[in-house]
Amino acid sequence: MALKVSSTVIDSLAITAEQAAPHECCGILLGHAGEISGALPADNVHPSPETHFEIDPRTLIEAHRRARAGGPAIVGYYHSHPRGPAAPSATDRAMAAGDGMAWAIIGPDAITWWRDTPTGFVPLSLGD
């Protein structure tokens, strides 16, 4: 399944991850089914932000409110692995909801895209 993501979103994810290092950045992916049109950065409120992430609940609640009011839908989440591969970690797999959301994982040299399914993460390719 191909996912549409603008170069502006990809660039903003890379910049956000670079600015957050050595901590993991995190945030919310916005758009509609099959297309990501925006990224909403969130504070990483996890007690160990160097190796884990937790999206600030206030940002998540506000994104849901905006979506209900006609704004862009929440279609996924993103976070970085400043010192690791751009692939779901054991912690990511354990914490995933299996809810079909898209995930972007930003590593030192790549951004990868995933679908969080009930049976685990499935890689996504980017389409036109």
From TrEMBL:
Pfam families named in the record: Prok-JAB
Keyword entries, A-Z: Hydrolase, Metal-binding, Metalloprotease, Protease, Zinc
Biological process terms in GO annotation: proteolysis
Example of a GO MF term: zinc ion binding
Transmembrane segments: none
Ranges of residues in domain MPN: 3-128
Signal peptide residue numbers: none
Identification of the protein by name: Peptidase
Species, as recorded: Aurantiacibacter arachoides
